[in-house]
Amino acid sequence: MKKRLPRPHPVLRVIRLIFGILLLVLGVIGGLLPVIQGWMFALPGLLLLAPESRLIRKLIVYTRTRLRLRRSKRRREAATRAATAGKGES
Question: Are the C-beta atoms of 41 and 30 separated by less than 8 Å?
Fold first, then answer.
């Protein structure tokens, strides 16, 4: 069973929500404008909102899992290429 973290002070929760939503809005605007990089604002906004939103937490866990699977697949493919390249030299 997971241990629950204590709730932060209500003022800190409101500040986190305001900054998270502000960064998320800037990220969406940045995605539409070619001048600003949207992901630089959207990622911190999502991370700030994650403790308050189950949907965003699930999205972050899903993304991390996909990135880990992709990374492990690349490592396996590189190891396979290295092993087959080593056999061809003999």
Answer: yes
Instruction: Give the other-Cβ count within 10 Å of 23's Cβ.
Output: 21
- Measure the CA–CA gap between 80 and 43, rounded to whole angstroms: 34
Domain co-membership, 46 together with 61: no
Whether residue 58 is found in the same domain as residue 46? no
Report d(CA 56, CA 47) in Å as an integer.
Answer: 8
Range of the domain at 69: 54-90
pTM of the predicted model over 0.85: no
Which pLDDT tens digit goes with each residue over 6-62? 777 888 889 999 999 999 999 999 989 888 888 899 889 988 988 888 888 888 889
